[in-house]
Amino acid sequence: TVRGDSFRIAEWYGWTGKANQGLRMLANDVAAGIVQREIALGIIKRVMPGPADNSIWDVENGNCIAADMARHVTVNGQKYKGITWIRSNKSPGSRKAGWERCRGMLKDALPAYVMDAQGRPVRVPRERPGLYAFNTCTMFIDLFPILPRDEKDPDDVDTEAEDHIGDEVRYYVLSKLERAQVGRTKGT
């Protein structure tokens, strides 16, 4: 691997089996389900907040999905911290930049080769971070590769398609890129 590689090790995709139809679960129940899965994977308390669609911070009739998910949850009779998120990048141009970054990371995950003196390919270390998915991520494997491009804008995807998993990955790769650029340097 190279510094910056991203590994998608697990997922929980709440849907009914019909496109764009979720399970209609309460936010706190979703948080409890995430915590339950983190416990089962042995990664509880080691997961850093990732990006979520900014609409979860909207307050409607005094309710806020992000606040509900952040409340403590009880799993198997034990109390745990809820799930927190960071805001996704929804700045102008971020959709196209995110899809381009997704395509780039998938390409950069492929083995790298150079030709030797006899013209034979020789595998060399990759230089840029790639995006990988474990075979446990069946919804990603089923849905992400077939996301159709928008007919009017080929740099974007068709938002009428089952694009939720694509949006989630796009938010993630953009946030990873932003975090990598944060910091100071001091020259001589």
Structure description:
The chain is α/β, with parallel strands linked by helices and 188 residues long. It contains 5 helices and 10 strands; from the N terminus they run E-H-E-E-E-H-E-E-E-H-E-E-E-H-H. It has a two-stranded parallel ribbon. Helix 3 crosses helix 5 (164-181). The model has no long low-confidence stretch (mean pLDDT 92).
Q: What is shown here, in short?
A:
This protein is an alpha/beta fold. The protein is built from five helices and ten strands. The chain has helices at residues 27-41, 65-70, 94-108, 138-143, 164-181, and strands spanning 6-8, 51-52, 59-60, 63-64, 73-75, 78-80, 86-87, 112-115, 121-124, 131-133.
Question: Which SSEs are present, and which pair or pack?
Answer:
Blueprint: E1 6-8, H1 27-41, E2 51-52, E3 59-60, E4 63-64, H2 65-70, E5 73-75, E6 78-80, E7 86-87, H3 94-108, E8 112-115, E9 121-124, E10 131-133, H4 138-143, H5 164-181
Parallel strand pairs: 1-10, 2-7
Antiparallel strand pairs: 3-4, 5-6, 8-9
Helix pairs in contact: 3-5
